[in-house]
Structure formats: structure tokens, C-alpha cells
Automatic annotation (TrEMBL):
It holds the Pfam family Hydrolase_3. One of its GO terms (molecular function) is magnesium ion binding. It comes from Brevibacterium ravenspurgense. This is Putative phosphatase. Its EC number is 3.1.3.-. Keywords: Hydrolase.
């Protein structure tokens, strides 16, 4: 059997925007993994938030890509935590924070450090950040001194059009960034993305690029969708990301990902039913 890497975004792809995982999607993903394929979660969430879904899926081995590619952990049932850090990318957040705050001084800022601790300039609104460890609030000046895997900026005082224009005016250099759905900006080290992390995992597993499939719904999935051999775009994002799709799935609320995985891997009803037991 040819082993595939199956790289899956979480929010809007595996789970809906309320963090709900359908029984059918769970069963299909488990059936894919039981076939011997490598299910790799690839998310903008922090490690804790990503592991929340990995645990609900029942994944006990393999890799989880978090923080949009800056952090990779390997699931290990024998480890005390159930996982070990495999690779971390980091950068100096100071210059980017300075440029962002000069254009959007009212924004909230969060920095995740190399110990995977999240530091912020203030409390984020409830529901903004996925399940994970508590934020540690500190001064903006202190944020600039951290060694970062990721920066998040959240601006709540202007509309989305004004936010996107402001981001263009910031002129970020030496980092990789993606704009989220609701005045949200994610920043990673230069050249780091879900795609770069999946490529690293593929080399370690000995899986060629031609044996990769990925699914996503947001701007932080673009590099991944471009890199994998078969790209699935979720139906609710077809207008924004359709140009990157080999397959356009039904929306997440309709189990669109599961349907396409069943088709791609030709899963049987018995294989899927077995995962409900």
C-alpha cells in the first residue's frame, strides 16, 4: 500500500467554527489512519488547542503541526504528556511588533514563546483563542523581548476593509503572515508555513510530495494547498480559495471533508462503521 500524508486544517475543515466535531468526520479520519496513512493536523492553533482535537479524533501517533507551521510535535503514547516537541522555528518579534503598533496602536498582541507559553498585551475576547493554556498578560515592551514562534494581532476598533488596508501599510518584512477572517493577523518566522512543516514531516516519514493530500478553508492554508499534490478546499471558502483547489468539498457543516476522504481513499462502509464502535 502507498502511504499518504493527509494534512488537515482544523477550524472550518475538521471541526466547525464552534469547535464541534461530527461523529461521521471523526470516523472517516480514524478509518484513513487505520489504513496506515499519516494523518497530520496542520493548524494555526497552539499545541494545546491542536491536541484537543487530536485527542477527540483518537490519534495516538503521528505529527501535529501547530502555530501555522512554527511548531511540530510528535504524538507518543509512551510520553508523560502524550507528545514530544519535534521541531520549533523562532524569531525576534520586536521589529514586527514595533511596525504593527505604529499603524494599529489600539490592537491586542499575543506572542507565543519557544516554551509554547502565550504572552499578551491584554485579554482577548472570549472565544477568540482556541482551547489551550491561559494567556499571561504582560506589557507591550516585554512582548518585544520574547523569542517568538508566532505573533497574533487582533484589532477590534475598525472594520475588516480598513484592517486589511492597514496591514498593507505596515510593510512587514522578514516574516510570513496571513490575514484571518475577523481583523486577525498571524505572523510566523520568514519562510515558515503549514507547507514548510508538512514538507519537513514528509522527509522524516519518507513520503514523497506526490503522495500528499491536504484540506483547508483559510488564507493560512494557501501555501499548504499549493504544496500538496491534491488540495481540498472547503465549500464555504470556494470563492476565496477556489483557485487553489483540485477538489471543492461541501461545507464543514455538511461533512464535506469526510465525503472527499471517503472518495479519495475508496473507504468502505464497513471501515467507517467500525470506527463508531
Amino acid at each position: 500500500m502507498t502511504e499518504y500524508i493527509v494534512a488537515l486544517d482544523l477550524d472550518g475543515t475538521v471541526v466547525d467554527y464552534e469547535n464541534r466535531l461530527s461523529d461521521y468526520t471523526r470516523a472517516v479520519i480514524r478509518a484513513v489512519a487505520r489504513r496506515g496513512h499519516h494523518v497530520v493536523i496542520a493548524t494555526g492553533r497552539t499545541v494545546d488547542g491542536a491536541l484537543d482535537v487530536a485527542n477527540r479524533l483518537g490519534l495516538t501517533h503521528g505529527y501535529v503541526v501547530a502555530s501555522n507551521g512554527a511548531v511540530i510535535v510528535e504524538l507518543d503514547a509512551e510520553s508523560d504528556r502524550g507528545w514530544d516537541v519535534y521541531h520549533v522555528e523562532c524569531f525576534d518579534p520586536g521589529p514586527a511588533l514595533e511596525r504593527m503598533s505604529s499603524v494599529l496602536p489600539e490592537a491586542l498582541y499575543m506572542v507565543e514563546d519557544t516554551d509554547l507559553v502565550r504572552w499578551s498585551s491584554g485579554q482577548f475576547p472570549d472565544g477568540d483563542l482556541a482551547v489551550g493554556s491561559d494567556l499571561r498578560v504582560t506589557s507591550f515592551e516585554d512582548l518585544k523581548t520574547k523569542t517568538a514562534t508566532r505573533i497574533v494581532m487582533r484589532e477590534m476598533t475598525i472594520d475588516n476593509a480598513a484592517f486589511e488596508k492597514s496591514v498593507q501599510n505596515i510593510g512587514l518584512h522578514g516574516v510570513t503572515y496571513s490575514v484571518g477572517w475577523s481583523n486577525w493577523l498571524d505572523i510566523q518566522p520568514d519562510g515558515v508555513s503549514k507547507a514548510s512543516a508538512i514538507q519537513r514531516v514528509g522527509v522524516n516519514l519518507g513520503v514523497e510530495q506526490k503522495h500528499t493530500i491536504g484540506a483547508g478553508d483559510g488564507s493560512n492554508d494557501v501555501e499548504m494547498l499549493q504544496w500538496v499534490d491534491t488540495a481540498i478546499v472547503m465549500g464555504q471558502s470556494k470563492e476565496k480559495l477556489g483557485a487553489y483547489a483540485d477538489i471543492i468539498a461541501a461545507p464543514v457543516e455538511e461533512d464535506g471533508l469526510a465525503e472527499q476522504l471517503v472518495n479519495f481513499f475508496d473507504l468502505t462502509k464497513d471501515e467507517i462503521s467500525a470506527e463508531f464502535r
